[in-house]
Amino acid sequence: MLTVFSLKGKTALITGGGTGIGFGIAKAMLEAGARVIIIGRREETLQQAQQELGGDVHYFVFDLANTESIPELIDRIESAVGPIDILVNNAGVHLKKYALDTSDAEFEKIIQTNVISVFSLSRSCAAKMVERKDGVILFIGSMTGMFGMDRVSAYGTSKTALTGLMQNLVTEFSKYNVRVNTLVPGWIESPMFFKAIGDDPQRKEKIVNRIAMEGFGKPEDVGNAAVFLSSQAARYITGVLLPIDGGATVNF
């Protein structure tokens, strides 16, 4: 039974895999038997993650804002490491600001990183997956894409947009055995999360009261869910939003 959850022989590309949730996903996929590739902007962070992860881990330094160079990046990765079987679009940026104080430039930056870059990377990887008639694409959503929250209008919009993107890609890629799903982490212990609540005790209290289970989630909770959706155990699952949130989306 456990073999259907194995990722042995698979190669997973994880953006922002050097820290936080991305690192947790990389660790879980490595433990499931996958070859792991992490990409990010800071080589020192990637090198440290590679050392901590150990095993069959590769890294590439790249800024996803440079969308025109993404096709060349994917060609370079596949030439150096091998075909990409799993893409995890984890990299993203956050903005905690009231809507009335958010400039057009700030809003555009969030959309560029969290939506347009994700689409560009998914398109480049999907082109090869479609040819091979096999592949998995995962988006990383957010609680802000499930319900309204103050001070995250740009970020929440970007994460909500991923749901629409996923649904439309499912209609085009399913016939080629390329599955597209979205993981929706709740409040997971990570540098981004702690930064967001560090100077806002009222927001932290509100979050704690919202979560049905005890405490915050951990990166490996998201990693384990990513392994499941990437494995043969989920071979007939596509187009779903999977909250990893301790019940926050349904708790009152």
From TrEMBL:
GO terms for molecular function: oxidoreductase activity. InterPro entries: NAD(P)-bd_dom_sf, SDR, SDR_fam. It holds the Pfam family adh_short_C2. Keywords: Oxidoreductase. It comes from the Bacteria. CDD domains: SDR_c. Its EC number is 1.1.1.-. Transmembrane segments: none annotated. NCBIfam families: PRK07231.1 (NF005559). Belongs to the short-chain dehydrogenases/reductases (SDR) family. This is SDR family NAD(P)-dependent oxidoreductase. It comes from Sphingobacterium anhuiense.
